[in-house]
Write a structure and sequence with these properties.
This protein has 343 residues and is of the alpha+beta class. It is built from 13 helices and 10 strands. It has 2 domains: 86 residues; 237 residues, BirA Bifunctional Protein, domain 2 (2-Layer Sandwich). Helices cover 42% and strands 20% of the residues. A hairpin with a 2-residue loop joins strand 7 and strand 8. Helix 1 packs parallel to helix 4 and helix 2 runs antiparallel to helix 4. Bound molecules: phenylalanine.
Length: 343
């Protein structure tokens, strides 16, 4: 029997082929269910004990050689197949275009990072909101004229009263309410997200845009803390820390202010974007109105805080000197490509 196996070994050693079907025949002959190797393993039982060791070794040797042979020829035949398809080795490879982040994401991430250094964490809430979180809890009761400041897209109009309305959030201030309802002070959050307003489309406005909201609630938070935070922020983002706060009105903050950053008047572009004043408006802010705190179960005698909200598009347009807000939604690759090197 051993000598028969040695014959097989020679046969395997000499085996050569150019065709896949011959290779398959060879495989079946040795490794198939009724193949030579299975047959030999079956006979192994009958081998006398003193020969078992030698017999086992040659069978294993045969098996390994068969496997090696098959692997070698399979690789050789496979690679000759692919060579046939791409005979022209001078052809250039397939170039994979690398994408880039959208400028809105770039700036949003940068703003989140700036605030994360002073302890703000990111919070999120739904884009489809109810009346309470978008308006009423923010000190904007039904019939309040300030609701007109934000033209709203309604998903469902309540039958009895507007308190049952379901709508697309008009600002990220709704995230303040959701967060305060579910957490205890002190809290310090940043809420980036999409917001929706039913506005006429022009080069300066759009129905979907992005905001970032900030909220800080703790004991003895003052307007001075707000101002210091804003100066830190404008210095980090624009490299400019000269700001001014103009008195303004928001139902959910008291007092309220609009924040302008001093951009400068050094060249024609500065004149154009600041309309000749040197100042640029970048966000709204104020001390959280005590009524808002009461609405979410926080005692305004014990806690105070500030909030601010800014539109991301406007800031991107300032940072990258872009003139038309519609560019953000067209996804023209020629625009996006310019942001390839930015993270
Ligand atoms: N929600 C306001 C807006 O959309 C911005 C704002 C946020 C103002 C927080 C004050 C405080 O215009």
């Amino acid at each position: 029997m051993i000598s028969k196996i040695r014959e097989y070994l020679v046969e395997v050693e000499d085996f050569k082929t150019q065709s896949k079907s011959e290779l398959e025949e060879f495989r079946i002959k040795y490794l198939g269910k009724k193949g030579i190797l299975n047959d030999l393993f079956a006979k192994f039982k009958e081998v006398p004990v003193e020969q078992k060791k030698e017999f086992g070794q040659v069978i294993n040797l045969l098996k390994n050689q068969v496997n090696e042979k098959i692997d070698d020829f399979r690789n050789a035949l496979d690679s000759s197949d692919t060579h046939k398809q791409t005979d022209d080795f001078t052809k250039s490879g397939i170039v994979k275009e690398l994408g880039s982040r959208h400028p809105i994401s770039i700036v949003r991430n940068r703003i989140c990072e700036i605030f994360s250094k002073i302890g703000f964490t990111v919070a999120e809430a739904p884009e489809i909101e109810d009346d309470w979180h978008n308006f009423t809890a923010l000190n904007l009761p039904e019939y309040h004229p300030a609701r007109d400041m934000q033209d709203t897209f309604f998903i469902e109009k309540g039958e009895k009263s507007s308190s049952e309305d379901v709508l697309l959030r008009t600002h990220t201030s709704s995230v303040q309410i959701r967060y305060m309802e579910n957490n205890k002070p002190p809290m310090r959050i940043l809420a980036p997200g999409r917001v929706f307003r039913n506005e006429a489309i022009s080069s300066r406005s759009h129905c979907i845009f992005h905001q970032i909201e900030g909220l800080y609630i703790d004991k003895e938070v003052s307007f001075a803390d707000l101002k210091q935070t804003l100066m830190y922020f404008t210095e980090e983002l624009f490299g400019k820390s000269k700001i001014r706060l103009r008195p303004s009105y928001f139902p959910f903050t008291e007092p309220s202010a609009e924040v302008d950053v001093y951009w400068g008047l050094e060249n024609e572009v500065d004149y154009r974007i600041t309309k000749g004043t040197g100042w640029l408006e970048i966000m709204g802010c104020g001390m959280v109105d005590p009524n808002v705190l009461k609405n979410v179960g926080i005692n305004p005698e014990e806690y105070s805080g500030y909030a601010f909200g800014m539109g991301i598009e406007r800031i991107v347009m300032l940072l990258y000197q872009m003139g038309d807000i519609r560019m953000f939604f067209e996804n023209d690759v020629r625009m996006l490509e310019q942001f390839k090197n930015e993270l």
